[in-house]
Structures are given as C-alpha cells and as structure tokens.
Amino acid sequence: MKNENEESSRRNFLKLGLLSGGAVIAGASIVKALANEEPKKTGEMVKVLTADGKMVEVDSSMINHPSEQVLKEHAIREGIAGKKFIMVIDLARCANERKCIEGCQSMHGMLAPIEYIKVKRMQDSELAAPYWFPQTCYQCDNPPCTKVCPVDATFKRTDGIVVVDSERCIGCKFCMAACPYSARTFNFGRPEQIAFTEAHKSDQDKCCTSPSTEGTVSKCDFCPESAAKGILPSCVTECPNGTIFFGDELEDAVTNGEETFRLSELLQKRAGYRQFEELGTKPRVYYLPPVNRQFPFEEATEVHNQAE
Amino acid sequence: MKKYKYILTICLGVFFTLNIGAQEKEATMTLSFAKVDSSDVCNVLVVSEGKPVADVTVKLFVQRLFGLLPIGKDVTTDESGIATFEFPSNIPFNSDGKLIVLAKVEDDENYGSFEIKSETNIGVKEDLTKLEKAERSLSGSRDNAPIYFIVASISIITGIWGTLIYVVLQIFKIKRKKTVTI
Amino acid sequence: MIKNDISLDKTTFETFTQEEYMVMKSDLLQPVQKIGIWGKVWIGFLITICLLGIYAYYIQESKSKYVTVSLRDYTMWGVYISNFVFFVALSLIGVLMSAVLKLTHFEWYRPLSRIAEIIAVAAIMLAGVSIVAAMGRPDRLHFLVLHGRIQSPIVWDIIVIMTYLVTSLILLFIPLIPSLSTCKNHLNGKPKWQMKMYEILSFGWEGTAEQWKILKKSMKILTVLVIPLGVSIHTVTAWLFATTLRAEWDSTNFGAYFVSGAFLLGVAGMVVAVFVIRKAYNLEKYLTEMHFDKLGKALVLMSFIYIYFNINEYLVPAYKMSGLHANHLLSLFTGDEAFFYWSVILFGMVIPGILPLFPKMRKPLPLFIITIGVVIAAWFKRYLIVIPGLAHPYLPIQDVPNSWKHYSPSLVEMTIVAATFAAMLLIVTLFSRFFPIISVWEVAEGKLEGKDEIINYK
C-alpha cells in the first residue's frame, strides 16, 4: 500500500516538475519576445536602388544607406577633415562572389560592364596558387594619374582620396594611360548607360564625389560622403565573406562591417602588402596574402560581361 | 483534485516566470582605469541591486568611426564582480583627444544584454602628419607646382617668345624702311 | 645662258641675264598664275574628303562615342593619338630641310625650304586637330588655358606646339616677303583681292640693302631657334608616353627615338612632295635629279640612324625579355602584330636604308616609290607604338566584352584620319596656288653666289 502511494506521489512529483519546467520556459520566452527591441519605423519613405537595378521605396529604417539630405556636404576639393581612409583586402576570403561589384554598380548607378571594383583571377606563377583579386582604385599616395592631368580635374585630397571632378575633366584620358593598375574607366556614352542615368537623374549616385558624365573619366572613390558619416561603402558591406576592410588610418582601425581590427596589428600579423610596391605609387589599399584560406579556390563558372 | 493541482501548478509556474522575466534582474556596470605594473588596465565592475555579480562575460570595445574595435578577449567577472582587461596604451584618440570605451554584456542568462559607455584619456594623439599636406609637388594641384618648375618654364617661354616678338617687330621695320610711299 | 649643270655645282655660278631671271620667275609663278583642270579636280577631291571628315566628327560628337568610336577602357587612345604623333613627326620636316640644311650650308636646300615650311605648318595644325578630335569634352578646350597645370606633359606639348607653329609661320612668311613683291609685280589677270593681299603682306618690300639686312638677320635668328623647338615638340610628344609607368613606354630612349623617326619621315615626305610638285607644276628645272640624289642619300642616313634607335628600343629589351616587357615584345615579334611590325621594319627602315645606296634607286621615280612606302610604314609604326602599348596592361584584362579586348579603328575614326591628311594636302596645295612654292629669290641668290649683291628686278 505504502509503495503504491510512494510511487504515485513520485510520479505526481515528476509530472509537476515537467509541467513547471514547461511553464517557466513558456513564460521566459514570452518575456523575451516582449522585451526584444524592434527597429522603430520612422515613417519616412526613401527611394532605394536594389542590387538588380530596380527602384523601390522602403522605410528609411530599413536601409543602411542614408537618404538624400545627409550626403554631399563637402565641396569636391575639400577632404573630409581629420580622416585618411584606407582599405585592406583579405585575399584568403575572396571567393569571386562579385557582390562587391554589384553593390558598387547599384550604388553608383553604373551598369555592367563598367566596374569601379574589379575581381580578377591572378596566378603569380605556374606552381603558385591562383587567387581571386578584388581591385579598386588604390587612391595612391604618390599618384601617377594626378601628375599628368592637364586641367587639375583629378587631384589628391587631404583625406587620402584621389577624386575626379567631372565638371572639370576634358576627357583626354591621359590619367587612364598613366595608371598602372588600369583602375580608371571612361564614360564613352554607352547608350544603355546614358538611358539609365537619365531615368534615374533625381536619385543619381549620391555617395560619389562626382557622378560620371559622358566624356569624362570616373573611378572608385572610397565613397567618402557616406564614409564621413560612419557608413561603410557598399563593396565592404555586400561581401558575404567580409573580404574588404575599410577604415580611417588615423584611427588605426579597419572593419568589414562585422569584425574590426587594429590596422597596424592586422598588417603586421597577416603580412599585408601593396600591389606593385616597386612602382612607387604608394597605394592606400593593402592586401593580406591568401594563406590559410577559409575555403579552397574555385574557378569561375560563368562569364559576366559579354554584352557590349 | 489531482487535475486541479496540475492546473494550479502550471498557473503558478507561468506567473512566477513572468514575474521573474518582467522584473529581470537589472545589473549595471562601471568602468574604471588603473595602472598595474606600468601597463594600463580597464576594470569593469558589474553590480546588481547593490551587490557585485560574478560569472558574467564582459566584452570591451573602443568606438571607432565604422565600428567597435574589440579590446582583448571576453573576460568573466570574478567573485568581486570585476572583469579586468589589459588596455593598450597606443590607440589613437578621436579628434577631441579622447577615446570612447564601451563595455558590453551580451545575452547573459540572468541579466540579459546591457552596456555602458565611458571615456578615457589613455591613448595617443592622432598622427596628423599622415594627412596629405598641400605642398608643392609634381602631383600637386595647379597652384602647387614646384617653384623650380615655374621658374624654369616661365624663363624658357619668355626667352623664346621674346625672340619671336623681336623678330616680328623687325619685320615691321621693313615696312617703315620703305622709301616709296603709295 | 644658264649652264645645264649649274645646279650640280654649288661653287661656280654664272651671272645670268634679266631674260633668264624673267624665265625663272615666270616658271616659278606659273602655278600661281594658272590653274588647270586637274588642279581644280584635285582641290575638289580634297575638299570633299575634308567635308566627309567634318561630317564624321559631327556624327562622333552627336551620337554616343561608344558606338561611333572603337575606343574602350583599355585601349582608350587610338588612331587619333597615333595620327597626332605622325603629324608632329612630319612637322619636323621644316627643321630638317629648311633649317638644318641652311645652317650647314647644303645649298641644295634652296628650292626645298618653302615646301618644307608649308608642310611643317600644315602638319602641326592638323596634329592639333587630331588631338582635339580625341578629346572627350572638346567644349572644354579653354580649360587648358584657364585651369592648365604646368606639371602636365600635355600642357608642355601645347606650349611647345603653339610656339613651333608661330615660329614656323613666321619662318614661312619672312622669306616669302620678297616673293610676294614679285607676285605683286609680275602676276596678271588675278582678282583684285589677291593683288591687294600681296600688297599688304609684302610689307612695302623694295629690296633695299637695309631691308635685306633686316630680312636676313630675322631669318637667321629664327632658323637657329626653330631647330631646338622642332626637336622639343617631338621630344615632348614622346614624353606623353614616356612619363607613364606602362612597361611598353617606360623607356629612356623614347625622346631620341621619336626625333630620329621624325627626321626619317621628313626626308621621305620631302621626296614625295618634291616628286609630285615637280610633275604637277613642271618645275623639273628647279627640283632636279640632283635633289633626288641628295635626298636619297639623306634617306639612307636617316634610315640607319632610325634602325639604330630601333635596335636599342626593341632588341635590347628582347635580349632580357623581362616579365614586364615580354607580352608586348612577343606580340610584336611573333604575335598578333607581327605582320604589321615586320612590314613596317622592312618598308620603313630596311628598304630605304639599303636600296638608295644604288644610284639607280636615287632617280626620281624609284625613290618616290620607296618613300611612299616609308610614309605609310611610318604611320603604322606610330600605331604600333600607341595601341599595343595599351593592350598589355600590368593587370590582366579579364571578363570584358569582345570590343574591349581588341582595338580596330571604326569607320568614323578612319574618316577623320583621312580628312586630316586631306586637309594637310589641301593647305599645301592652296598655298602653292597663291604663293610661289619655290622661293624665287633664294634660288636666284644661290645661283648668284659669289656676287655681293642680289639683282632685284621689278
């Protein structure tokens, strides 16, 4: 008799315990759900260019990139005060996803095949391992391009950025001939591009120092207007592997949006180097060699810029 | 009777949990900096309801333009509720001469997530010499051409065009030398 | 009586009579006096091509350049730039044929100097046109003055070219003054405005001793000045390439290499011009076989100098075959450009260096054929310097549309290039129809060498 009673009370106890446990869990999750912060809707609608070139309107809380009024505060020849932008690209992480290219194209309103950032397949020698090589304009500290411009249309600012003033450029393309990295591109007035620029005149390339116009040169400019506000360029944020790190050299910190490192430590530890250092151009983009790759190298499976 | 007991237990359990959740224990942190053996440390004291809290994982960051620079690894508070971080003494300041330091606790089981911001003077001044100066160079703007360049160009151009103008004036002399006027 | 061999012997001259002088004058004024049907057809033909060129430029500027012009991001300089280099090279003909020969007392320059000067002036003007055609924003041409940077090689090039153009114009004009007076006095049946023009431009020339003195002195100053100026324009043009970091242009040799090529082109251009002018204007008595003989020898000399510079420019890097130059050199020697490259070497340097060593080859017609080859080869040589230099950048060209990988000039570009040639020929032709193409007094002076005074017949 006593055994039965004991057993049933044990069973009861167990059941009680399980139920209480379940109740606590249920309660805790309710509390958590209520306590979690939600992004507040600002109610302000902003036009945004999606990655495939469509114009949509979203609430401004949904986008990282600010709307029109916060950009273009600086005169083009004036550098962002007290900052010197620098970029570090981790070749161990680049997998030719090309999201950086697409993000940049959509942010600047450029259509393929125009690419301010290019991803190239490099292989230094036959036995060496191939790697994917994202390449922007390096905003060199000893720029071979600004030397040769006849009308002072391209120049180096205090914030380290080499800018093209498309209002001044006469289209002689000497700077393009002088750049050993082929970083610059010329707006030949490709019909699709012109049509696109016309259609998106009102929300044109807002984060660029000087939007590309027909007959002038343009290139990557490290998106300084958004950088000044602490917003990373889209090539940095779009990369799924966090390959590109961006920062202010004076702050000694670079970030890819998720991980932040001290610039000096990163370059020392990972043996950062610059492309064609021997040319003396002093680029502002450092590369981290593709050692200890996060994933093996894969050849490209498709050709992207076929259309003329 | 038994069924009633179950229902009561469940209700009590939910009520109890809700109470706890709604009144999740609050904890706060305070940051302080000290020097230990000539290196800087940052001590984070986690306090809840007046009492220091142990076994809470704290992360320390310095606020930078584009993100948070992590300082050291995660540190768990000891019995006196203090997490000690070795703070590097050579981080460049912001333009106002200070660093904004952030201590964060993320998803602690008892206390949830919370953070605190503070400032410190430990660091180094930004090396403003790195900023591009508008000095005279071949790469410089129009107004910043090297002096020797400007002098040499103007001398050569003046010399040659001076000669040309002189020659042209000589030609006009031919006209003046004519004896027959029409 | 003019001795038949007088033009071959520069030290003994006979005095000649007024009759002979009048014959000479009427011979040399003949092209100005009368223009035949073929002359008109030729001018009409040139004007047509020029108009086509203007139309092509209009199309280029009004439609998208991406469609009308084959330039792309990697080969952003094309035939306009190589054409520009060609014309700058051609404009050194004034330096060589007019100035250098004069100062070194090679008297056979005398009938050639005005031809050389007008070709130089025309060529340098068309070089400027070619470069403006290449600009992306020609409406901003004035920025070069308003915002010009003295550190830029393009600004140096503009300054030197402007200076050379002015100097050549003055150098064309000064020796023309006595000829203008001759025109004024001896032409008949010409429209009033033309005679008025001669009147004004001759600056009251009477041939007095004082006036001659001024004329001679001014010519001397400019003749000396134009030589370093001419060498400068082509050196600075070479620096448009040599001041970049591109491997193909990163050569210390470039300035001298370009100038030596220009001298070769100058001699070749002179032969072509002399052959055509003497045939068209019946000036065989003044542009004699002696001139072809001498020009042939000059051609050999210039070819060998140019071969020397080419060896330094191509064979020495080929010995090293540095990784930086390998792509470019191999594409020239055995790759895509091999046919052009070796043809250019053969027709542009080897043949003009070897064949005119034989006296038979220095006769007018053979020499003319050789030099036509040289001129064409010279144009392609400049093409081979500019375009392959752009097609092999340090970082590989990958994943681009087909038109970006290989440059071949579009119809619009070739039309404009053809129009620049037509315009140059038009300027020279029109000049020769209004002013005597051979300087009457300089030839007479040469014939009278040994006498103190110049006989000036009105």
Q: What is the CA-CA span between the terminal residues of chain C?
A: 20 Å
CATH superfamily of the largest domain in chain B: Immunoglobulins
Give the helix level of chain B as a range of percent: 25-40%
Extended strand count of chain C: 0
Judging from the principal axes of the Cα atoms, what is the shape of chain B?
elongated
The CATH topology of the largest domain in chain B comes to Immunoglobulin-like
Keywords:
heterotrimer; A: alpha+beta; Alpha-Beta Plaits; 2 domains; five-stranded mixed β-sheet; 13 strands; elongated; B: 182 residues; alpha+beta; Immunoglobulin-like; four-stranded antiparallel β-sheet
Q: How does this structure look, described?
A:
The complex is a heterotrimer of chains A (308), B (182) and C (458). Chain A has helices spanning 2-35, 99-108, 144-148, 174-178, 191-199, 224-227, 234-238, 263-269; strands at residues 45-49, 55-59, 85-90, 118-122, 131-135, 154-156, 162-164, 185-186, 217-218, 244-248, 253-255, 260-262, 285-288. In chain A, strands 12-11-10-3-13 form a 5-stranded mixed beta sheet. A two-stranded antiparallel ribbon of chain A has the order 1-2. In chain A, strands 4-5 form a two-stranded antiparallel sheet. In chain A, 26% of the residues lie in helices and 17% in strands. Chain A is α+β, with helices and mostly antiparallel strands and 308 residues long. With 182 residues, chain B is an alpha+beta fold. Chain B is built from 2 helices and 8 strands, in the order H-E-E-E-E-E-E-E-E-H. In chain B, strands 1, 2, 3 and 6 form a 4-stranded antiparallel beta sheet that branches. With 458 residues, chain C is mainly alpha-helical. Chain C has one domain. Chain C is 71% helix and 0% strand. Chain C has helices at 18-33, 37-62, 65-68, 79-90, 93-103, 113-134, 143-146, 153-173, 176-186, 192-201, 209-242, 254-281, 289-320, 323-333, 338-354, 364-391, 402-405, 411-434, 440-447. Chain C is globular, with a radius of gyration of 23 Å. The model of chain C is unreliable at 1-14 and 450-458 (pLDDT under 50). The chains are: A alpha+beta (308), B alpha+beta (182), C mainly alpha (458). At the A-C interface, strand 4, helix 3, helix 4 and strand 8 of A face helix 3, helix 8 and helix 17 of C.
